[in-house]
Every structure is written in structure tokens, then in C-alpha cells.
Write the C-alpha cells for this entry.
Amino acid sequence: MTFEQLRGKDAAHIAGTYARQQTLIESGVGATLTDAQGKELIDFSSGIGVVSVGHANPAWVRAVTEQAAKLAHVSNLYYTRPMIELAEKLCARTGMSRVFFSNSGTEANECAIKTARKYMSDHYPNERSEILCLANSFHGRTMASLSATGQPQYHKHFGPFLTGIAFAEINDIASLRKKCTGKVGAILLECIQGEGGVIPVEPDYMAAVAALCAERDILLMVDEIQTGVGRTGKFLCIEHYGVKPDLVTLAKGLGGGLPIGAVLFGEKLAATLGPGDHGSTFGANPICCAGANAVMDMIDDALLAEVTHKGDYLREKLESIPEITEVSGKGLMLGAALADGIKNSDVTAVCLERGLLLLTAKDRLRFLPPLTITKAELDAGLDILTQVFKTFQ
């Protein structure tokens, strides 16, 4: 069946919620994909940060296939080894106390929001119920996580939204203090706003957030769905700030390509949720947990050092391109602002034709290659990008 025929079936049978790029991906190894015509493409997107250890990583494939041959699903009414092993690894790695497993990042944020509300209800009944989020944030597309998303374009058509959500400006300490009223019991933020344009939280702002939380017993909730699992050169991006959160949400790169999310609870919240307070039919699926265990075993200090080194190299090369005016982000999560008159969508379209997959974020290009990308693959992708920019001169 031809690509055109398959595209027609897609249009006929799949809800039109995505403006797909015009290519059919058949396979991948490392950071190199192959389309239906046999053309190779360098992947600077990793499935929006999901394929953290590369496509068809042998250790990951082995862990997933071995688990699939033994047990696919039994539900959370029973114990399974992969779930328990993964929870232990996550707690040991982060210093957090408990884990709840979901299927995605937006579900992880739903659980985090419910946990914060439960804590407020238990400790400050009729006093606190509000969660302070940041403008320009993105936390998901289900109703609670969408309510916490500080981008009005995602809200159109879907109100009314969850009450008890307020927004402060990112990196504006005066706005933070003004919005942090006595009703606020939790603050939810991303260390780097990914969908918001790869905008990092500044260290002094994070310090102000942490100080407010400590002073007023406000929960600090950190959305590490895009920044976590080694993406910025630390296992959690919040480690760069020297701050200990009360709740952390993970997804994307944790499963290495399979759907899994996680909420990490600090000691303060370890016993907040009890039986029946929350649940997930597919959460902690043994196959997904087996894949995540393989990822956890690969994200060691040596790989994190490589991420930092490759991130610095990628930043240096991007900053040398005249059409790029600014590079933001950290590690292998970078955003590139473009010169006036150049649209990021035009750049990504031509890059795809030439053999490079890129992402956008607001008006910027976004770079989220697999953490295991080789220097040869990085250079091949950068060569394509450099040549593409010459067409815009």
C-alpha cells in the first residue's frame, strides 16, 4: 500500500487532532530513522523527548520482549516485579519516598494536583485550596492539567475549567509574591517551559519559590515530564537548582518509547493518598515498567556527563549559525530563536525534506535528540540544518 493510500485511510478513520508531517516512519536505530521510501532521517526530536536511549536500543528491546513473553498485564490488584523494582530505583535515584505510576505525563499531573488538594484538605481545611502555576506553562490536555496550563490558546472551547488555579509570571518575583495569597497551598512549575518556548526558570526565581514554600508550608510541585530522566544532564532538572521538591511528575523519556508516567512523593506526602484515593487500570504495566527499568539502568553518571558535553557542543554549533539569534535551555533540551522573517515551521518542513526531524516550541526551533545520539549523528543533523538555513538567506 502506498504512502498516499495510507494517508487517505488516516484521514478517513483517525480523528483530525494532529497536523502530521508528510512522511511515514518505518523504523529506527539510535538517532537515525528510515521512512517508507528507505530514506534516512536524523532524529533531533526523539518522539518529543520520549525515545531517551535511542530507537531499538538493544538493552531496552531485550528487557521489553523478555517481559512481554512472561506477563503483559494483571492490574494493580496484584504485585509485579518490574513495578516494585522501578519504584525502588526511582526513590533511590531522587531521594523521594513513594511512587504512583500512570500512563502519561498529563495523568501524572492529574495525580499530583489531586494529591496537593488532599494535603490541603487534610492539613488546612476551609483555608487553602488554590494551586499557583506559571503563565506560559504547559501541563497537559486533560481538564485539571489543562486548567493548570498557562497558555490561553489551549483553553479555547473547553471551559469551564477547574477552579482554584492562579497564575504568576515566570521569573517575576514580585508577581510570585503578589499571587501567593493565603489560599495558596501548592506551587506547580516546570524548570524549563518546554512547550512554552524552552524558557528556563532563573535561579533567583527558583530560590524565591523555595523560600516561600518553606516559610508557609506550601507544596512545591515540579513537572519534570520533559526535563527529567537525564534530559538536562542531571536525572532531574531541579537538581541544577539545589532545591528539594515535595512532588515530581515524570513521563516521556522514562519509558524509552512505551507509555508510562510517574508521580514521586516526598516524605511530607508519602502517606497522603490511601486506598481508593487514586488509581489507574494500566498504570505500572509490567512491560512498560520493564522498559523503564532498562532506561534507569542506562542513565548513569557517564551518560549524564555525555548529555552535558553533547548539549554544550550542540549549543555552540547552533550559536554559530547567523540565522539563530539566541539559544535557550540546558543539556539536550535546547530552543533556538530565529532571525526576523524566518518561520520555524518553514525551517522544519525543509529540514524534513533534507533528512532531519526537528520540533518547534512557540516561535522557536526545539531540539530534543535521544540522549544516546552519537557525535556523527549530531554532526549529520547540524550539517543539514546549516544547509537549510542557507536557503533562507
User: Anything to note?
Assistant: The chain has a mean pLDDT of 97. DSSP finds twelve helices and 17 strands in the chain. The longest strand covers residues 324-330.
